Amino acid sequence: MSPLPDPRLFAAILAARSARFASRKLKTGGGSTVPGLVARRVDPKVLTKLSRRLRLGSAAITGTNGKTTTTRMVSKILQAAGIRAVNNSTGANLVTGVTAALVSDSGLAGGPLSDMGLFEVDEASVPKVAAETEIEILAVLNLFRDQLDRYGELAYTGKVIASAFGDLPQGGAVVLNADDPLVASLGRSARRPVFYGVDEPTLDTGRLQHVADSKDCPVCGTALVYETVYMGHVGVYDCRHCDFSRPAPEYRVSRVRLEGAKGSEFLLSTPKGEADVKIGLPGLYNVYNALAAAAVAGEAGVRLAEISRGLGEFGGAFGRVERVKAGDREAFLLLIKNPVGFNEILRTFVTGAEARNVLIAINDNDADGRDVSWLWDVDFEMLADAREEGKTDAAPFTVSGIRAEDMAVRLKYAELPVGPVIPDREKAIKSALAATPPGETLHVLPTYTAMLEIRHTLSEMGYTHPFWED
Amino acid sequence: MLTIHHLYADMMNLYGDRGNVISIKKRCQWRGIPVEVIDVGLTERIRPTGCDLFLFGGGQDREQALLAEDLSGSKGADLRAIVEDGGVVLGVCGGYQLMGHSYETPEGQKLPGVGIFDLHTEPRRPKEERLIGNVLVRVRAPETGETREIVGFENHGGRTYLGEDVKPLGEVIVGYGNNGKDGTEGARRLNAYGTYLHGSLLPKNPWLTDQFILNALRRTDESFELEPLDDTTEGRAFSSVAARVAGRR
Ligand SMILES: [Zn+2]
Fold this sequence. Notes:
The complex is a heterodimer of chains A (470) and B (249). Chain A is 35% helix and 20% strand. With 470 residues, chain A is an alpha/beta fold. The two termini of chain A are 32 Å apart. Chain B has a single domain, classed as Rossmann fold (3-Layer(aba) Sandwich). Helix content of chain B is 29%, strand content 28%. Chain B has a 6-stranded mixed beta sheet with strand order 2-1-3-4-14-13. A 4-stranded mixed beta sheet of chain B has the order 6-5-7-10, with helices on one face. In chain B, helix 1 packs across helix 6 (206-217). Zinc ion (ZN) is lined by residues 217, 219-220, 222, 239, 241-242, 244 of chain A.
């Protein structure tokens, strides 16, 4: 297979390669978008040209939470099915990152090494990526309040994503979370919506968390009536005022058994049959990620047996949930992105451990979200209950990060003991590890940039490797 | 017994509005002052108990239209009467905007406000940015005459312009404030306050929280005094943000 020669494309690929080489030598942390930027400058059509050459087209995954994990799950499933997919790397989820991935997957003549493109795409970048790439499958996982200072309004983000639907090729599928009302409502403007959802009444939290994302009808604006609330505004709902209700999912999960840090088991139902699936990632949010991955893979034509095998073999994505052996202790790194994710992590890990050995690190750099007022939407009060039940007198929480003092105030008002306030991340992780009794686990809850810093410190202490070496 | 009326709690608690409620509640409880929080939803009436504090938080554009409609009837009139009578009201962001004469949405729809403050809000023009960031504001407390600083975070597209019959809450030291042009932030009339500083405004500025509590309690007992609390943690949070924004001075 030798594609037609295209001098401009050739020059773009060459330029991107030397840029990638240079940024690796400079150790600028992976250099994952620079080559894309360079290639686009040389040939603005580089993305369109390269993506057209993929035999099986491309799938894109967007949404606030779980993009990286879901993308990696799909990747594992495709691997199980013998399909080679090209991915963009974590954090490089703008159009330049997608371009960089395709460029690095190309021979100099532009022929692809992979069969399919599989990209996680930042919500705001969806229209641009869809306009330049043949997206056969576009999955929207959820829309939570996350870095609102970047996107403005949530409903607006939904509109931005939906504006890309028209660019999908004929027969292109839009895979949507039926349990997220705003996401589900996007199905109204899709030619071929495919819904997925969870049917497990025992997981009802019985209350809407204090997070005002989209608890009212995205169509008419009246309050939705919830039969079940799984997390945040995600659940089984109905509008009593107009014809909008939770769509019936084609891909669904039931009989869910959450087994804490060990993972979960559930029954996966698809248009092609049912299978029992086990995943090694904790929490209901990862059940959702697995379900979304199953729907994307199913729409890409992968068989059910390979879907369940791929999910079973999946190990987890960098930083989302990571265990690090630290001498005779263990550190559990749990990335904090927004209040709903924070609540889930507290519920899954911290309350069960009687809320002991906890380090929270809150930064307010651009990548973390500059506004930290969302800390007040997190239910830290549930930790006060857990401590009471466990009658624990364990060491109080260590707080760190640029906004450590804000976090300390939040704990104080949740009637939790405020322990050491150590804004410096390096000092904080060292001190919190030292305060963790041997044989026990330290729960580290950092925002994105704080996580990078803490991981770096752990690596310097000899406990793990920097992520760009994997 | 102090009653906190949380207006549109179910719709407008974006931006950590809940922090303001928790702040007032805890600072009452720690002093042994009984406190109750009542959520006032759409179509529900405000029912003052005599010793009240009204919180009116920020929302999204789509919700602003629903609220403007809800406030156009007796609820808006009640709120106006409460303010005239010296009741304590704090409007934040979307709530603040609706306490003025009018609020124009980015789509050009002009929504009527409650008219508590002599001000109006214009939408962001196509080439203008949202006004986002940490804010440091100098506030003169009329009760004591002293000047104090407050910190918070603002995130708004709308530009608010004050009329002649209203005073700003304070002057912007760092940040944008009402419109990014005239250096004013927020509004104050009698015991009604409006501000763009959202979310954890009260947790980090506990003296302001106490001012609200005191003003509310003095409506039933003029000689009421508040026991001082240990605000070391809050003070540190204030200082760390103040130091962080000072770099932009
Ligand atoms: Zn409806």
